Amino acid sequence: MESGTWAVVVAAVAAYLAWFWRMSRGLSGPRVWPVVGSLPGLLRHAEDMHEWIVANLRRTGGTYQTCIFAVPGLARRGGLVTVTCDPRNLEHVLKSRFDNYPKGPFWHGVFRDLLGDGIFNSDGDTWVAQRKTAALEFTTRTLRAAMSRWVSRSIHNRLLPILSDAAHGHDVVDLQDLLLRLTFDNICGLAFGNDPETLARGLPDNAFAASFDRATEATLNRFIFPECVWRCKKWLGLGMETTLERSMAHVDRYLAAVIKTRKLDLADTTSATPHDDLLSRFMRKGTYSDDSLQHVALNFILAGRDTSSVALSWFFWLVSTHPAAERSIVRELCAVLAASRGADDPALWLAAPLAFEELDRLVYLKAALSETLRLYPSVPEDSKHVVADDVLPDGTFVPAGSSITYSIYSAGRMKVVWGEDCLEFRPERWLSADGTRFEPHDSYRFVAFNAGPRICLGKDLAYLQMKNIAGSVLLRHRLAVAPGHRVEQKMSLTLFMKHGLRMEVRPRDLAPTLDELRAAAAASTPAIAACA
User: Fold this and answer.
1) Of 145, 219, 370, 378, which residue is the least packed, with the fewest Cβ within 10 Å?
2) For residue range 499-515, what is the model confidence (pLDDT) as tens digits?
3) Over the Cα atoms of the chain, what is R_g?
C-alpha cells in the first residue's frame, strides 16, 4: 500500500477515534465501544437484561443515554437510545409531549405483518379513530358482563377441574401454561365470540392458537436483527420469516371465516343470538374492511392474552412464597363471602362464581395484584420514537430520529420513588392506613398499564379477570413451587417465566380461617354492646 494511502487510512482512523471520544464522553450509560456501540453489553446481559437496566438507572439517577451504532451520522440519531424511568420524564413522553413520541416506523415495521394498522401498532389519525371506538365500548357494562361470563365459565368448567385432578392425583402442573390457555380462550371469546377451547382436560392442541403463537414468536425474532437483515430474510423467504408467513396464512383463513360468519349473523334480523364481542361491536359502529376487522381482533388478542396470564403467574409465585400475604388474601375472601353468602356453610362459597359486588370488595387482593405488577410488569420495557428535538424535564436532550426506552420494570424498583423497601413484596403499600380502601399510586410511578392518552383501556377488565381467577383458585387450593423448579425471567417483550411455573396443588382447608372470623366476630360483639 502506498504511503499516501496509509496516510489517508491513519487520518481517517484518527478522525474517527477523535469523534468517538467526543461522542462517548457525552453518554452516561454503560460502556460504548467503537463501531458496535453498546451491543457487547447488551449481548453479555441478554439473560438478565432488565436487572442490568435497573442497575444502570440506579447508578445514573434514573436516566442514561447509550449508542447502539457508534457510526458518524447514526450515533446521534437512529443509533442513540435514551433510557429512563424518572416519573417526570415518563409524564413528559407519555402525556405532555405525546405527539412528539409515537411508536414510530421501526416498531410499526416489525409488527406490520402480525398487527397491521391495529390500535396497538398505529399512530396519528388511524390510532385516534380506533381508540375512540374502543374507548366507547370499554366503558359499557355489557362488555364487563361479557368478560365476566367468559372468565367465570373458563374458571369453573376448565381450570378448577384440572387443578382438582392435580390435587387428588398429587400431580405437578405448569400453571403458566394453564393461565396462558385460559386467558387465550377468554380473550378470543371477548374479541370475536369464538372459544378455541385450548384449556380443556388433556390440554389439546389448537391450530389457530399454535399458528398465533408461532407468528408472535417470529415477529419478536425481528427485534434481534437490524431491520435490513430481517427484511432481506423476508424477501428471500428464509428462517423465521417463512414461519411468520405460513402462520399468518392460517390465522388469516381462520379469522376470515369468523368475520364472514359474523357478518351473516348480524345481517340476520331474525336471529336471537346476542353478539356482544368486540368484533361485532366494531362492525356495528362503522364501515371497516375485513382486513381492518381482522387487525382489530388480533390486536386485542395479543394485548389481552399474555399480559394477564404473565401477571397471574408472577402473582401465584409471590403469594406461594409469602405466607402472610396468602393468609390475608384468603381471610379477605372468606370475610366477603361470609357477608354475602352466609357464614354457616362454606360449601355455599364454592357453589357459584364470584359476583361483581364480591370482586369489588376484594381490596387486599387488588393490592397484591398491583404489587405484583409493580415488581414484575407484564411488559417490562417499552419504547418511543422521537419526532423533533426535545429536552426532558431532567435536562436530558433527545435529538429527532433517536428513540426513548422507558423501563417499566425499573420504575417499580427505584428507592427514590418507592422507598428503601422497594424490592419487597408488600401489598399494604397500596392500602389506606386502616387497610379498608385501595389507594392507587400516580400512573407515572406505576406504569404497568401505560399512562397518558395510551393508558390501557382494558385496565378495569384486567383487574376483574385477575381477581376472579386468583380468588377462585386460592379459595380452593394451596400452591407451592415444585421441588427443584427454577423460577427465572425469559428475555422477551413480555415477562414470561423461562421454565414455566411448575407447582404442586393441594386442597385448601377453610376451617381455620372460618374459626378465626367467628372468633373475631365474637370478640367484637361485647364491645358493640358496651358502646350501646
Assistant:
1) 145
2) 999 999 999 998 888 88
3) 26
Residues 162 and 148: their CA atoms lie apart, in Å, by 20
Cβ(119)–Cβ(458) under 8 Å?
Answer: no
Tell me which H or E stretch contains 218. helix 207-221
DSSP notation for 44-76: HTTTSHHHHHHHHHHHHTSEEEEESSB-TTTTT
Note the helical H segments in 342-395.
347-350, 356-360, 363-375
Query: pTM of the prediction?
Result: 0.91
Q: What is the 3-state secondary structure (H, E, C) of 297-339?
A: HHHHHHHHHHHHHHHHHHHHHHHHCCHHHHHHHHHHHHHHHHH
Residue with the three cell numbers 385432578: 165
pLDDT at 529: 45
- Distance in angstroms (rounded) separating the CA atoms of residues 167 and 479: 10
User: What grid cell was written down for 403?
Assistant: 428513540
Neighbours of 154 (CB within 10 A): 25
Taking Cα atoms as reference points, which of 178, 104, 127 lies closest to residue 405?
Answer: 104
Burial 228-261 (b: 16+ CB within 10 A, else e): eebeebbeeeeebbebbeebbebbeebbeebbee
Pairing between β-strand 397-398 and β-strand 390-391 as defined by DSSP bridges: antiparallel
Q: Which residue is it, cell 395484584? A: 369
Using alpha carbons, select from 236, 228, 227, 161 the residue that is nearest to residue 199: 161
Grid cell, residue 181, equals 390457555
Cell numbers representing residue 409 in the block: 420494570
Task: Calculate what percentage of the chain has a pLDDT beyond 70.
Answer: 95
CA nearest to 119, candidates 139, 103, 97, 140: 103
> Tell me: the pLDDT tens digits for 44-99?
887 888 999 999 999 999 999 988 877 776 666 667 889 999 999 999 999 999 99
